[in-house]
Amino acid sequence: MSSSSRPLVTPYLAVIRLTTRQLQLIAEHKLTQDDISLVKNDYALAINRHFHQRSIHQVILSPPEAAKSYYGRVSPEGLHFYAHSVVPSVNRKPPQVNRDIWHHALTDFLLGFPAEVQSEFSKLGVGVICWPKYFNEPEWLYEDMYKTIHAAKNAQQKVQGESEYSCESQQRVQDTQSTYM
Where is the composition biased (Polar residues) (predicted)? Predict the structure, then answer.
């Protein structure tokens, strides 16, 4: 396959859609009051500083007002995206994300929140989005995408190897049985 006919791999973000109230609850339960006050109660910025300081490859994206109608959500509740992982697309179309990934991400996300706070997150929207053009891409975006591709290839090779081993074992058992019969 020539390089010009290879599909272009595009990074998408697996996101959880949040309201401003939900973002506030996350900040108040995961950060110190000093962390929040330092950025004048900008919860997205406080959480993003936390991610950056700890080299966590996640981000809170808060689209500018003009972009919010594009996402179909103009409301007083606010609109924010918690991007928890990078997923590749080989055809520039939004990729399908495995349900297990969502379940794992949501379970991790809610871990440690008290029950009364968890109830505020009972209806979360999930999906995938491209990196917004109005923000600079983080240096880890493509790095994480290629790590995801590499991990998927390794998992596929492992499954293929186990399948081949299983077929070889079955053949040996059949050969052994036919020898003694």
Answer: 166-181
**CB 132 within 8 Å of CB 63:** yes
Cα(160)–Cα(75) distance, rounded to whole angstroms? 48
Instruction: Provide φ and ψ at 37, rounded to 5°.
Output: -65, -35
Amino acid letter at 70?
Answer: Y
Q: Return the amino acid letter for 44.
A: A
Are 11 and 86 in contact by the 8 Å Cβ rule? The answer is yes
Question: What is the separation of C-alpha 113 from the centre of its chain, rounded to a whole number of angstroms?
Answer: 20
Can you say how many angstroms the Cα of residue 70 is from the centroid of all Cα atoms in its chain?
Answer: 21
Phi, psi dihedrals of residue 84, rounded to the nearest 5°:
-100, -15
In the DSSP assignment, the letter for residue 112 is T
Full pLDDT tens readout for the chain, 181 residues = 444 555 588 999 999 989 899 999 999 998 999 999 999 999 999 999 999 999 999 999 988 765 555 555 555 577 899 999 899 998 888 998 877 777 777 788 788 888 888 888 888 888 899 988 888 999 999 999 999 888 888 877 777 666 555 555 454 444 434 444 4
